[in-house]
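Chain A, query sequence.
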Amino acid sequence: MTKRVALIRGDGIGPEVTEAALLVLDAVNPDIEIVPCEAGYEWWLKHGGDTMIPPESWKILEESDACLKAPTTTIPERWAPKSIPVSIRQRFDLYANVRPIKTFKGTVGRLGEVDFVCVREATEGLYSGIEYRLSDDVAIALRKITARQSERVARVAFEIARRRGWSKVIVVTKRNIMRECDGIFIESVDRVSKSYPGISYEEYFIDNMAQQLVKNPQRFNQNVILGTNLFMDIISEEAAALVASIGCIYSGNFGDSYAMFEPAHGSAPRYKGLYKVNPTAMILSAAWMLEYLGEEDLGKAIFQATEDVIAEGRYVTYDLGGNASTLDMARRIAERARELTRR
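Chain A, predicted structure.
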């Protein structure tokens, strides 16, 4: 049965990396229907309103099996609508944001090879949006942590470790200060851990975690790093700097019956229209989406093709040491993926 994918082309360089990803998808010819939908800061600038996602786009999203989203712009002004990824995560209860962090062959960074997975609770914490301006010079924000969401995301982390044959989950908190919120989180992790007797967990406070990640990142290889929304937003971004480029970091947002796939990087508006940015994260987000939708062989072929092209080093973008354009790199990945799927 053909699966339906809602496609958000995004802002800034979003349409360019989307074009690149579609080139690669076309090369392997998956059994999916891609339905573009309007959304984003640039759309909102033209149409206004209290949301960056119009009702007709919500309808497409709700009638789809998954969403493929290019980078979108979120501005920090008080009057601006809620960000698109936060809106979609909360609407579809996509409680687990997952970012694999792995060095590509031929692109070892200054701090050495890394291979771990970041798992972030993505629907609550300080991103719940419960904040108030009490006066001109006083504002408060509430950090909401629930046992239900904490247990669900912990189970995702332990399942990833189990499937990969790894034996440790690193839990990021600041429980020595925020004893109630992080107390609920670590208690939830502990309950879930009892169902995984071969996998241990170790707690790191967020400040120490940030230091250790650059002091000796290899200590976390073959680990899953788990934490609440804001902490893991920061840690997974720091972790992305350990590989050749954040342009290589893809991600998935998972609920019980829906998923959204997106690059970890932003919309980089200053590069808009130049076709120079790295398309890897968008291409691999699309590949992971294929695996999620049951097209495992095609998804794996795209992953292998991308790894081959990066290792080859001839058709890569400037951030990977080459001079290929966004579409030059995508075309080479598409060509290699086509070769792999014909075997």
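The CA atoms of residues 167 and 269 lie 41 Å apart. The mean pLDDT is 96.
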